[in-house]
Amino acid sequence: xxxxxxxxxxxxxxxxxxxxxxxxxxxxxxxxxxxxxxxxxxxxxxxxxxxxxxxxxxxxxxxxxxxxxxxxxxxxxxxxxxxxxxxxxxxxxxxxxxxxxxxxxxxxxxxxxxxxxxxxxxxxxxxxxxxxxxxxxxxxxxxxxxxxxxxxxxxxxxxxxxxxxxxxxxxxxxxxxxxxxxxxxxxxxxxxxxxxxxxxxxxxxxxxxxxxxxxxxxxxxxxxxxxxxxxxxxxxxxxxxxxxxxxxxxxxxxxxxxxxxxxxxxxxxxxxxxxxxxxxxxxxxxxxxxxxxxxxxxxxxxxxxxxxxxxxxxxxxxxxxxxxxxxxxxxxxxxxxxxxxxxxxxxxxxxxxxxxxxxxxxxxxxxxxxxxxxxxxxxxxxxxxxxx
Length: 388
Prior knowledge:
Blueprint: H1 2-14, E1 28-38, E2 41-50, H2 53-57, E3 64-69, H3 77-85, E4 88-91, H4 97-100, H5 110-121, E5 125-128, H6 138-141, H7 147-166, E6 171-178, H8 213-225, E7 230-235, H9 241-256, E8 263-266, E9 269-270, H10 278-281, H11 283-299, E10 303-312, H12 319-338, E11 346-350, E12 356-358, E13 362-365, H13 376-386
Parallel strand pairs: 3-4, 3-11, 4-5, 5-6, 6-7, 7-8, 8-10, 9-10, 10-11
Antiparallel strand pairs: 1-2, 10-13, 12-13
Helix pairs in contact: 7-8, 11-12, 12-13
């Protein structure tokens, strides 16, 4: 197989008939070995890639696809698999408040700095996933924490991170807030204790028009300190109309105050909870709502991002059928996304690229199985990556 790859390289390098692939006047150059799997067999072949990732990423009328890596996956086979196919990176948790600035006086930049260097070394576009969100530190979730204490940490966190990421030319997007609204349309807020999924930042109160102060302040800080980065309002759940109507109202409200919101995101954790079951039980209806949401975003000059796509497996004893269903669902979603690229920017981020365990026993699938063999969903993503 290595000999075959070498012969292909020699052929493309010296054949004048292939000057559309190797040409000093062309913006393409052979620079990557990309894995492609066909009928269960892994083969290696050479494909053209852009000399500069930014050129590729700014190309119009194309679905931009990337994936997430966790910090512990750097330097592993997953890193290699990522680099084979993707040039758009979202670091998983390294930029979140719980890791970076968990309490006053504590800063832990090491992991996100290593990710930023990794992006530079490999010419990757980065979306920073470090929003003000329920992924908060235990310190922030403590019941006795005051609004003033929370605001102090949140303001410092957003100010320093916005300034830092604004310096990085590889960073094109940053999530400013995340998971702010419940499927019912109500604001997501704090809960008792520190072990539950909650949003402590709502303790900072509402402004005179009923919008959470932490959302307004976060976008004020990002607007002022990250002019070079596109700002994203990210949201979980499914296609619940009350939730998205509240998000739309909030985006327009922020803009009415002179603040910048450049895109909205939908996580896309399929089958995670009741809120995303509609994609399983009535996918046509859910996809139609997704289509309309993207239309609204583009009509309001907003990029649209699917930010955390993966699939929760119901039955690990019937994994092959589950993986086939996942691939079919991914194909439908990508069809919707690709149908919108002529009206505005659309991106898709895979949450991890392999099998993910959420303890104690909840498994999520991406595009590789536990042994890092490609799943049927890999073929769908691979096809989408090649589509122009």
